Amino acid sequence: MKSLQATQNRLAQAQEQIAILEHSAFEHFDPIPFQYKLEESSLYPLRPKEINIFQINIGKMCNQVCKHCHVDAGPDRKEIMDQTTMQQCLDILSAHPQFSIVDLTGGAPEMNPNFRWFVEEIAKLNRHIIVRCNLTILRANKKYYDLPEFYKKHRIEVVSSLPFYNKDRTDRQRGDGVFDDSIAAIKMLNAVGYGHEESSLKLNLVYNPAGAFLPASQTELEREFKQALWNDYQLVFNQLFCITNLPISRYLDWLIQSGNYERYMDKLINAYNPAAAANVMCRNTISVSWDGYLYDCDFNQMLELTLACPSKHISQFNIQQIQNRDIIVGQHCYGCTAGAGSSCGGEVV
Amino acid sequence: MANHYYNSEDLKKFGQVGQFQKEMADKFFAWYGTVFQDSNLSAKEKSIIALAVAHAVQCPYCIEAYTADAYEKGYSEAQMMEAVHVASAIKGGAALVHGVQMMNKAKEIAM
Question: What is this model's ipTM?
Fold first, then answer.
């Protein structure tokens, strides 16, 4: 499997995705605009609360090509953050202690050659660091084998996708062999102390549905994941985050190709929850792209919807402008407001 | 009229059955909602029972609805298929156990 960009799929273009989502090309399908739902909930325009998460996508390069990837990441993607942009991020972090959490994502962030330097510099600023590790990167090459020790040294919270506790469903979404490698990687993390109940080294797993349906209850599924991974592999982890798939990029392509697009959008819209809308992650997060542009969230980043204020790039960063901006919303946002809601930390209500 | 009996789009119209008899429909949907809430059985347990029964009564609308619901309650494909086997075993067993009736009658009327 290759990225949408590599196959010259029209959905590799953000404008094409927005055209489908906002101006449905499907006959007899005229979904309620997300903005109307927010208005009904007295949440429009959506405004930031206290912004404390600085999420940095340090590149689209990845060793996996997952069917649902909203980044359209893969081995053929060469866009990665350079050291100059990383230094700009460090300068902003240094000047703004309100960003207590730095969330590093990708692609596989570890594939950026400056990843370790960047983490070490952020650690000097005494922030809580999250790395969104796809697990298989720990097994991809000898040069990554010591990453668990590196994470441990810098007290990094590791957040890793594992779509299900069995091989079949995981490999269908993330590629052949991913489940076995993921199990081996969790074993490596457990071995250095990650994921144990009393440990301060947190390993949190992420469940997202392998298909056109909503995630299960986080509490129940966490219990089942823990039981299954312990019984079958003697593995431990701390929390399970349930995330809803947003209808963009490769997942949008899959929805359309499989004939599930309208049904899935209906499902998201019918499950709109005002309480979840009030707690969406874009209200306390700033998202930075590999080339330094600023967004409301990683999804708006992939749709190339830069912040609705003059601070559009890290070089123009002005916290007052950012704090006072309106958050850009669209039909894809229904993914974060369905049911118990969805964020990079799982359910929001 | 459509030239086929089942149309998946009709599932969305289920709520409209109240157009012809509102009072009974309202009572049905209120009762239905209560039935599937967490109670002495969890909503998750009820979901897999519903999936099994959907197969026993061979309702394509129910199969569609409760397949998605089973996924959304966190069931694996193997668990879902085992539920279908339970329904099938009961249906098959229900047919076979009537073989006793047949034997009884056969013995009654045969020399």
Answer: 0.76
